[in-house]
Amino acid sequence: MNLAHWLDRIARQYPARPALAHGTRLVADYAALAARAAAVAGWLRAAGVAPGDRVALFMGNHPRYLELLWGVWWAGCCAVPINAKLHAKEAAWIIGHAGAALCFTDDGDALREAGVECALHADAGVGDAAPVVERGVTDPAWLFYTSGTTGRPKGVVLASRQLQWATAGYLANIAPVGAGDVMLHPAPLSHGGGLYHLPFVMQGALNVVPESGGFDAAEVFGLAAHWRRASFFAAPTMVKRLVDHAKRSGLRPEGLATIIYGGGPMYLADIEEALAVIGPHFVQIYGQGEAPMTITALPSAIINDRAAPRWRERLASVGHAQCMAEVSIRDADGRALPVGESGEVCARGDIVMEGYWRDADATARAIRDGWLYTGDVGRMDADGFLTLLDRSKDLLISGGSNIYPREVEEALLTHADVAEVSVIGRADAEWGEVVVAYVVARGPVTAAALDAHCLERIARFKRPKHYRFVAELPKNNYGKVLKTTLREMESRA
Fold this sequence. Notes:
Blueprint: H1 4-13, E1 18-22, E2 25-29, H2 30-46, E3 54-58, H3 63-74, E4 78-81, H4 88-98, E5 102-105, H5 108-113, E6 119-121, E7 140-146, E8 154-159, H6 160-174, E9 182-184, H7 198-202, E10 206-209, H8 217-227, E11 230-234, H9 236-249, E12 256-261, H10 268-278, E13 282-288, E14 291-298, H11 300-303, H12 311-315, E15 320-321, E16 326-330, E17 343-348, E18 355-356, H13 360-366, E19 367-368, E20 371-380, E21 386-390, E22 396-398, E23 401-403, H14 405-413, E24 418-428, E25 432-441, H15 447-455, E26 466-469, H16 483-492
Parallel strand pairs: 1-10, 3-4, 3-5, 5-6, 9-10, 9-11, 11-12, 12-13, 25-26
Antiparallel strand pairs: 1-2, 7-8, 8-18, 13-14, 14-15, 16-17, 17-20, 19-20, 20-21, 22-23, 24-25
Helix pairs in contact: 1-2, 2-3, 9-10
């Protein structure tokens, strides 16, 4: 099934319903949104882009992003959304690895300088309206590139069935959606939060992109008050900023429906403060690119039930398995562990990716006997509530964005005066974690020089916030760097 059938159906049934807004300004009803998607599809076909081809989107948040995305699907193509914060060289690698036939971008000059060879367009021209192209439920629809432990991102293949289940999961586990409901998009549309526009299209509701194109607490509260019945996805860092703004302004937010939080650790004290300041509007989700937003959920009914036994313990969890997922805690040999024991969190069901793009070995390591091994460590209680204890040792999450140390290490090691480097995370009240680089220099080098070096190679948000210059890195007998020792050193810094 092609997801574009959802848009086509709603446009036929409710053509005048508001579909898309930019800030407080309505820019399309459903008839107009479907017509624009059909025109983009016709333009793609005239440009020689065939069904099944990959089409990249390297753009910031804007209503046109969603028009182009639906046009890509309408044409039967696979969308490759790329984080707009990435360095052009990083985006170029993704475009090349995906074999994209075309890229929509608002930074074409940078991509050309980075060596991108596929066609680059700031926008799609007007084409003859094309019919929706039929696609199978396992045909790739969304190719999501997530950082990998090899230092290069891996392409997670999500077909229409994963996106359908993610949409159904929202309606079943998060909140119902109907006419008059609103989804705000302060989080990047290229990330998992962008998937939350799908249930609102399927149900003929309104998607709103802030004029800033990003997250601003005052703007988000203003849009909620304007549109009413407004929901949005927020990383824990964003939730903290919402709370801080509400406290500074002295105003209780109006017009809120649901704030879905996830994408990083939410500390118990922070969610308790958010409930006290903002009100009973929160739902937590847990997932990853390989099973986006769909593994567990902590519904608002549980979050707000302070009279329940072990309420605070449940509030510190990531909830229970969503209705379309099985969740299991397993040991290193793949055996299911008893209640209360710690092990790797595994998930199974049609929510799990088709695999990694052009990487059968990585797929086989991640999916075993039908189970997705998430790399996260957790334990399950007798009532089915999952508590996350740790993540894979290398992964850092800063401001809701995944950062793998090896990516940063490899960038730093290309500097002539860096002999060795090891990157770890440090807890941070605002960002959740920040990147810290322990550097063994072979020549005179400064933190400012290394910072500039990183900015030429990796995204700004990935660069270290702190540099520690040391004579040597702690290692075991086999020469492996002991990051546990570095973390202990950092805790004393």
